[in-house]
Write a structure and sequence with these properties.
There is one protein chain. By secondary structure, this protein is an alpha+beta fold. The chain has one domain: Nuclear Transport Factor 2, Chain: A, CATH 3.10.450.50. The chain has 3 helices and 6 strands; from the N terminus they run H-H-E-E-H-E-E-E-E. The termini are far apart.
């Protein structure tokens, strides 16, 4: 690989990691910067459409906002460069807990094994997601009376 290709791959990988960090820390401005303005997202059956409405879905208590904690772990990553575009596949495991006031008598813990299939484009020297499709492989749902908080740390 050329130094330019290695640099492109590192930049693309960083965008993906910033996305996970932004979602887990509820830094919606960071999440938004991972996408081009006209990006499309397909998280079927949960959400499908433009990135601006996707950002609303992330905070909506009837959507992704039902979760008060999330933790994404990125695994295998394939980046296939083609000039100013790239196709990527990123394996991930996402863990979520529902908000205490989500209408459930007990808290639940959801673990999702999934793949992010993204088309990146470099526009004006900046790599960002132009199109995203989420493929859920399987889900595990555990219900419990409560979850323990880390001593000395307030939950988000």
């Amino acid at each position: 690989m050329t130094p330019e290709e290695l640099s492109d791959r590192a930049e693309i990988s960083d965008v993906l990691l910033r996305y996970f960090r932004g979602v887990d820390r509820r830094d919606w401005a960071l999440v938004r910067r991972c996408f081009h303005a006209d990006a499309q997202t397909n998280y079927a059956p949960f959400y499908e459409g433009g990135v601006d409405n996707f950002m609303q879905f992330l905070t909506d208590p009837a959507g992704f906002g039902v979760f008060d904690r999330t933790f994404h772990f990125a695994g295998n990553q394939l980046i296939e460069l083609a000039g100013d575009t790239a196709e990527t596949e990123t394996y991930a495991m996402a863990q979520h807990t529902n908000a205490a006031d989500a209408g459930n008598p007990t808290r639940s813990f959801l673990t999702v094994w999934l793949r992010y299939l993204d088309r990146f484009e470099r526009r004006d020297g900046r790599w960002a997601i132009a199109d995203r499709r989420l493929e859920v492989e399987w889900i595990r749902h555990d219900v419990g009376e409560s979850w323990l908080d880390v001593p000395g740390r307030n939950p988000p």
